[in-house]
Specification:
Elements: H1 2-12, H2 25-40, H3 42-56, H4 65-78, H5 80-91, H6 96-104, H7 106-122
Helix pairs in contact: 2-7, 4-5, 4-7
């Protein structure tokens, strides 16, 4: 198991954001674990969201930017199966110790994870401008 944990930590890279003595356990987890995973998995998240949009057969690509952002937030926050799929993409890159930490406070960490993911996708809204075949 140690090989997997070492591989994952090396693969994900360094923490993103400040970690200080005043940082809460959730902030440390966010910057040490969640942010690097979200960055690493970014391209996959974009494709997963595009796929979800295509499954809904909406006129998403013709929405104004504000409506696109609201739609993305809606599908991530309100579609349980989709949200759980997104969480799985993140959780699969946890080490065993990180998973043990996560399950102790999964509700708060899930909120952080999904809010960061929503903001990450919204910040790349330009990638959702053109309909892809």
């Amino acid at each position: 198991m140690e090989d997997r944990n070492q591989f994952i930590e090396k693969f994900r890279g360094e923490p993103i954001g400040n970690i200080t003595e005043q940082s809460s356990a959730d902030e440390i987890f966010q910057n040490k674990t969640l942010r690097p995973i979200l960055k690493l998995q970014n391209d996959l998240f974009i494709e997963v969201v595009k796929n979800q949009i295509s499954k809904h057969k909406t006129d998403f690509y013709h929405f104004p930017v504000e409506k696109k952002m609201a739609y993305i937030e809606h599908i991530i926050k309100n579609e349980v199966k989709f949200r759980n799929s997104m969480k799985g993409i993140v959780i699969s890159l946890f080490t065993i110790d990180e998973y043990k930490t996560y399950i102790k406070n999964s509700s708060n960490l899930n909120k952080r994870m999904m809010n960061m993911l929503i903001e990450r996708i919204k910040n790349q809204i330009q990638l959702f401008e053109v309909v892809e075949s």
